[in-house]
Amino acid sequence: MDAKIDPITFAVIKNGLDAIVDEMAYDVMRTARSEIVKDVMDFSAAICEMSGNMIAQAKTVALHLGAVPEAMGVVLEHYGDDLAPGDAVVLNDPYQGGMHLPDIFMFMPVFHGPDLQGFTVVICHHTDVGGRVAGSNASDSTEIYQEGLRIPALKLFEKGEINSTLVKMIDLNVRLPDRVIGDLKAQFAACQTGAREMGKLFDRYGAETAQAYFTELLDYAERMTREEIREWPDGTYEFTDYIDDDGFIDTPLPIAIAITVHGDSVTVNYEGTAPQVPAALNSTKSYTNSCTYLSIRCVLKGDVPNNAGVFRAIDVKAPDASIVNPKLPAAVAARALTGYRIVDAMFGALAQIVPDRVPAAGEGGNTVVCLGGYREDGSPFIIVDMICGAWGGRPDKDGIEAITNPSQNLSNTPVETMESQHPVRVEEYALVPDSCGAGEYRGGLGVARSYRLLADEASLQLRADRMKIRPYGLAGGNEAGPAVNEITTSDGNYVSLPSKINRKMDRGELVRHVQPGGGGFGDPFMRDPQRVARDVWNTKISAGYAREHHRVVVDPDTGELDEAATAVLRGEG
Description:
- By secondary structure, this protein is α+β, with helices and mostly antiparallel strands.
- It has 3 domains: 7-223, no CATH class; 359-433 and 445-522, no CATH class; 537-569, no CATH class.
- It contains 13 helices and 20 strands.
- The longest helix is centred in the middle third of the chain and has 29 residues, at 177-205.
């Protein structure tokens, strides 16, 4: 640390920035219009210093935030000095700094006196941005032009005044303009909050002093990251995980990872990963970068600041025209699925480097269930439900169920909220017994959720995975149970659905999704029989599962452990 940097002031400014971004996040939750933002919490907030480097991020969707540097670079390149107090620049174009069209970035410049001192940033997943399918996130789109309204870096607000031309353009191209414009205004309000609080910080310390501490904060995060990486054994560590298919061709798509540790930095190479696909699963390079940074950040110590200094020790190489670095006009709306698999593959490689810090694979990322249509009065409705599932078993603990994927900070939509605002009835929301991967520490259970349509008809999009390539176990742990999609039609027929589908639903039909569980960690035969019996008593696993996977005998009616029979079965008696 620079001798001119006072450690107490450094800590105060660091924690002050963290408080500001969290206050921005709370503002979004309080003022947003759509469930996808205020209930599911698919949004993020951050602060950048005057050069555009991210210096703080809220406890929001981590996978968004590693993409901020590229989007910030586009804003700075496009506008340069043409920024003023009260401006707010938006963009969503995946080929100009964005990730996918529903995620709209907003950047607000922060001034102190006449000088630009930084930016506040809010990213929200919007319910709809137009395109061929309600919700704008269909996995079967084949080019970006089908997916909705592409917004380059443009000022939505200029010196505090809203750009009525851009608003009209958005209004005419989305299915739920009140919600979309309302959420954009929530972003603006949160950015204003951040700018106001940043102004107080500059008033207290002076802009020059504050900038010096921002620089030190970035350098400090870099130093801490490099110090940890320096303790890792040098070498190249490889892992390949798979997406089941692209929804068109029944062929697994490899996500190949090679992490090379050299001294105090790492290079992550995606050579061998699948080429870009005609489906909308392609992950932009900015999003691939974000997934990579996040995965490495997850295995670092908790006291490393969450800022762009961490990124400096990580070099990402992704082949051109691949599913992790596509070229125009590749569709990208469902890119999150590929991002989740990137994280799974990264964890598989990192488990070889720091095995005591990495859990087995979780559910493989949230499942998106999207229902869109019209009510009897002609008004449109769109449900974008992201089902959060299970963590894999950890090196010293079981996995967790009904929890957000480690790469996100999302929440399942409350059933009451969904049913009160949309013509749908949720008839099942439950944990699925025996869906966990067995291990000394078992994975979390998968989640089942079903939806009965109460409108005349609707479009149904399902974006799921892990039906064929199940979540992996580690250290001898078993794979978890697979995903399931099914529908009961209006005439009572049961139909099994593929993992990725876009189809019509009629009134009274019931669609059900079962998420995978989490993989197991460690030898299942090493699991404490009392813990196995407790899981049977809690109906998390069956007595048959306990016998097959753990060699433990439990009375299925009482949940009582039969110690003598267990000892015989385990070869101990």
